Amino acid sequence: MTESLAPHFKQPLLKTPFHERARALSQIDSFVPWAGYTTVDVFSTMEQEYFSIRNATTLYDLTPMVKYRVSGPEAMPYLNRLVTRDVAKLRPDRVAYCVWCNDAGHLIDDGTIFRMGESDYRICTAERQIDWLLDSAIGFDVQIVEVTEQIAALAVQGPTSCAVLKTMGLWGVEKLKPFEIGYFMLGAHPLTVSRTGFTGDLGYELWMEPGAALGLWDALMEAGRSRGIRAIGSQALNVARIEAGFLLPNVDFVSAEHTIRTGRDRSPLELGLGWLVDFNKGHFTGRRALLQEKTQGPRRQLVGLDIAGNKPAHNALLYTDDSGKREIGSVTSAIWSPTCKRNIALAIVDAPHFQIGSTVWAEIYLNRELVWERRMSRAQVVERPFFAPERRRATPPAEF
């Protein structure tokens, strides 16, 4: 029986339209599941792929990103009730990062909203949220449809990404401002380009019909040959997103829909996302609880840490001093930053220790030839992002 006719239970994970090209480039056969698809974790080495993000152009398969089309005469009022940000301020052909909460003001998920037309929007999330979206739509004249399999997506990121896109024939792409959407043609296929990404660097995300996916991949690889283009996996992207201070679901926070234990869900204010909460736009789900929390002040907050030494503080507990007696938080994401040359982390820290400039201590365990060593390392609360190059916002981007 051919692979294409094999029963679904023998190959339970879906393959993206780019899978054929990605599989051919995979050197170590490292794949991971994402939203029902199989995706590449590492192609060759994480280090090579990471440095391509910061020095050249990279391709990352975004197809598993869950996508919903939201349309209808009350699409905007519906979204304004759903999310904490004021969607009425989002102009057509623009993108906005947003979060949505339950009635207790605890985060359900984060994602991006694309305004494709006057009453036509697209929500992109890392996980499926159709039940919450439909329940929230009761009483609104709006249609919500999942379109994940109808749209292939590719992230093109790095300092030479704009030059590669222009070489491929997307003239005018350099005029796109951050969070702006442009429309192009690749041969006979329409191509939507947004100046967005998860690397904190110059970059774009390309959206197309699945039938155009392989042709686009080949065209990008040809156009980027002289600029060091490389396909990357999730591990390299994770390093870049931590440097950019971006949050990852199920790593830096858990959806309030999935938490079991009391106190494990988080609010936008606790996650340092208070700038996404607009109390002046009218009622939205979670507004009362968030307004009360703002008045009282959050009990904890997600912050950036600069940690002494060069050993990442993976899952480290945090304390007030090096005695390790009073616990005040924990690390959610940690790396040694190759670009910043710093040992950095994202961490949840209890009040009042989350203030910028505060000193905390991280309990780090190191495995030395199967023997664990405990190390108490001084850490300082610092501002995010850790890395924010000017090229990420320059319009037009400089030629590289």
At the fourth CATH level, what is the homologous superfamily of the largest domain? Probable tRNA modification gtpase trme, domain 1
- Please describe the biggest sheet, giving its number of strands, its sense, and whether it closes into a barrel: 6 strands, mixed
Count of helix runs: 8
Number of beta-strand segments:
19
* Low-confidence segments: none
Strand order of the largest sheet: 10-11-12-9-3-13
Helical fraction: 10-25%
What is the chain-wise order of helices and strands?
HEEHEEHEEEHEEHEEEHEHHEEEEEE
What would your notes on this structure say?
The structure is a single chain. The protein is α+β, with helices and mostly antiparallel strands and 400 residues long. It folds into three domains: 12-63 and 151-243, Gyrase A, domain 2; 66-149, 2-Layer Sandwich (Alpha-Beta Plaits); 299-382, Elongation Factor Tu (Ef-tu), domain 3 (Beta Barrel), CATH 2.40.30.110. It is built from eight helices and 19 strands. It has helices at residues 19-25, 46-55, 75-82, 130-136, 161-168, 213-223, 234-243, 287-296, and strands at residues 30-34, 37-42, 58-61, 66-71, 94-101, 107-117, 120-125, 143-146, 152-157, 181-186, 189-194, 203-208, 230-231, 300-307, 317-319, 327-337, 342-350, 359-368, 371-382. The strands form four sheets. The protein has a six-stranded mixed sheet. The protein has a six-stranded antiparallel beta barrel with strand order 14-17-16-15-18-19. The protein has a five-stranded antiparallel sheet with strand order 5-6-7-4-8, covered by helices on one side. The longest helix has 11 residues, at 213-223. It is globular, with a radius of gyration of 22 Å. The model has no long low-confidence stretch (mean pLDDT 95).
